[in-house]
Write a structure and sequence with these properties.
Oligomer: single chain
CATH architecture: 3-Layer(aba) Sandwich
CATH topology: Leucine Aminopeptidase, subunit E, domain 1
Helix content: 25-40%
Largest sheet: 8 strands, mixed
Amino acid sequence: MKVNVGKSMLELVEGDITLQKVDAIVNAANTTLLGGGGVDGAIHRAGGPSILQECRKIGGCATGDAVITGGGNLPARHVIHTVGPVWHGGSHREPALLAGAFANSLSLAAARKLTSIAFPSISTGAYGYPLGQAADIALATVLEHLRGPTTLSTVRFVLFNRMTCEAYTNALMELCAGSVDISCT
């Protein structure tokens, strides 16, 4: 699914984020930045040791924040590492922290004048965030960013499986339905 927002395009695709030819891919990292499972492990494996070396120099990242490294052996030039919240029922600032993970990643991309970025579904794997709620927050945060001045011409969500892609598609269709400044295709 593709959506035009101003001069930018928001895309939803099912696939492997490590194969994306964009300025930056976003890593659903943990606070140590030293690699892990899921998306984090896949990015570190595909990107090679230079990403881990840069992460060690950075020294960590708080939940909701984001940091940037080079892309190592990835097709993407950069990796933006962000830490989403672990789901504890929603009463421990999880929505604000998840929105912050997306907003801070987008701010880093803008500060570097990047034109394309690819996101995974942050916090919905081992961190247990409910998929539908996470999709709503992720997409609403990205759409808000794209409605303002931005260097980004493409924001792509690269979703690991059909169930995740369908959840994001449903959330995006609901967001498009009530908006006059978005055209869905």
